[in-house]
Amino acid sequence: MATSIAAGSSNLHFKERVCRGQGCRQTSRVSGVAFQRFVHQEPSWLCGSKFLQVKRCNISCSPLNVNSKPLKTVNASCLRDGTTKYFDFAVIGSGVAGLRYALEVAKQGTVAVITKAEPHESNTNYAQGGVSAVLCPSDSVENHMRDTIVAGAYLCDDETVRVVCTEGPDRIRELIAMGASFDHGEDGNLHLAREGGHSHHRIVHAADMTGREIERALLEAVINDPNIFMFEHHFAIDLLTSQDGSDTVCHGVDTLNTETQEVVRFISKVTLLASGGAGHIYPTTTNPPVATGDGMAMAHRAQAVISNMEFVQFHPTALADEGLPITPSKTRENAFLITEAVRGDGGILYNLSMERFMPLYDEREELAPRDVVARSIDDQLKKRNEKYVLLDISHKPREKILSHFPNIAAECLQYGLDITRQPIPVVPAAHYMCGGVRAGLQGETNVRGLYVAGEVACTGLHGANRLASNSLLEALVFARRAVQTSIDHMKGSKLDRSASDWWDRPVPVSVGRDVLGKIVRRTREVRKELQSIMWEYVGIVRSTMRLNTAEQRIGELELRWEAYLFQQGWEPTMVGLEACEMRNLFCCAKLVVSSALARHESRGLHYTIDFPNVEESKRLPTIIFPCSTVNNSTWSSRQLHKQHT
């Protein structure tokens, strides 16, 4: 098994840049290999001399040169034929980040929005609680910043936090101007809720379906924009990259039309990754089925820098189906979320003996940050050998419960539970990735022409634990901040008609129906096995021994699965939805495990019994650097095509 977690098909290393006037020309070492540090508009948490290296890269890497050459260019516009499409901007993902960005850049050029399923099928659509922003006179940016940094266990980037908290209110006003409808109080002002970790009421919401309302407003605007073209059921396979002197450059993306099984290539001047998270590396997650870590895995294979993947947020309160009076007839593809706002509105947590337990763990009780609440529930379940706990809001007036949580009330009532009279059975579930593709303050990555926004990105806002309702806010702010630099890059680039021929094309799977059926069944079994390993060994509470076990078992499982594929006649360039998702799940699971092994402390969402305390010397981001691959690299770790040089 190859122990490297950094992959790609050619050498990519770091170039020197200037970091907002700070002298941060640094040399760091990963497995004894020197890297020239980035110095550009990098987050301050990367401009210092220290970070936690993921020392699991046994491959040679060497520094890049500083200078780079311009792209090969010819004039081309939005050319569209059957299998190759040319756009100024390619946006991968149709959540709040992708759609908000598309609406802005469409003022300057043509935009392809590439989405894996239906346009509305995104984490945004499932976000219940709301968007946090300072909109009350008694609140302040400083208060919001402090709450964010405390929740993030002091690992947040201060500058990023200030930018997001300062610009947040304007982003909310823009949504309202676009037609998003949020709840108002009797005084006519926006109704601002409060959630765990917040010192003030600052959550703008639309009942308990805020994400759905934002998605509706943005999709309506996108559909009416003549410069934006939506490509549904197009699964992103791999980014198209080339080596240009010292730079890796992104030229677009290969996709699989999952309805026609045709490979469609998008050549673009700028690519935005807004593909969401990787919740489905775990068996129980609030994420929709599309959240298989595709963007993080693609970016990693394209040699983008990855950061803080050990910080997986488990939402403490997902609906525990087995505790409902009527058990659902079929297993859910994703857990039903019971929003943080239920606790913010006075919901109380009890064990099955109706004993309130949160005061035993934290003075903030039910309003403690999510990591604290999730660990407390986990501890109760293990000590008492029970499957779920109870969240009770029934002591509040019936009318208030039904007006604030109509979606939750309706869902529970389907299964015989009236939340105005009975407690809700809940259990923690994988919810949000605080780590991802490292981004600067304009959403830029170390890959030229590639930008990121939303959950796929690691901007430094969340640190070691995301504050409730900061995710939609971050997506809105960074989608907007990435616009101008993207437009500048677009105007300085031109599409090359010959670019589509630079890479071999992936091949739709062609192994016969019976064989394909066997492969799909085996892949689904492997997916469940990987999820089981992650829950058992890389869950809410961790240990070095368990993480090492996970690393070994995941590696062995991946090799067995790949061997099975190729024994059945699969080729390395073949693509199919289930197999490519599995490839990405393996990649993301390994990134999480390796990052967790690198952090020798307990901070925020990463809790390990071997290092139970917070260590000030370890208050550093975890960085996974890109490296060249060597022999024995796995299918999930390398791009399907050879990188163009």
UniProtKB/TrEMBL annotation:
Q: GO biological process: what's one of them?
A: NAD+ biosynthetic process
As given in the record, the signal peptide range reads none
Domain FAD-dependent oxidoreductase 2 FAD-binding spans what residues? 88-472
The keyword Oxidoreductase belongs to this UniProt entry's keyword annotation: yes
**Record Pfam families:** FAD_binding_2 (PF00890), Succ_DH_flav_C (PF02910)
Q: Which residues form a coiled coil?
A: none
Organism expressing this protein natively: Actinidia chinensis var. chinensis (Chinese soft-hair kiwi)
Q: Which family does it belong to?
A: Belongs to the FAD-dependent oxidoreductase 2 family. NadB subfamily.
Name any cofactors this protein relies on: FAD
Its biological purpose: Involved in the biosynthesis of pyridine alkaloid natural products, leading mainly to the production of anabasine, anatabine, nicotine and nornicotine, effective deterrents against herbivores with antiparasitic and pesticide properties (neurotoxins); nornicotine serves as the precursor in the synthesis of the carcinogen compound N'-nitrosonornicotine (NNN). Catalyzes the oxidation of L-aspartate to iminoaspartate.
Q: Name one GO cellular component term.
A: chloroplast
Q: What is this protein called?
A: L-aspartate oxidase
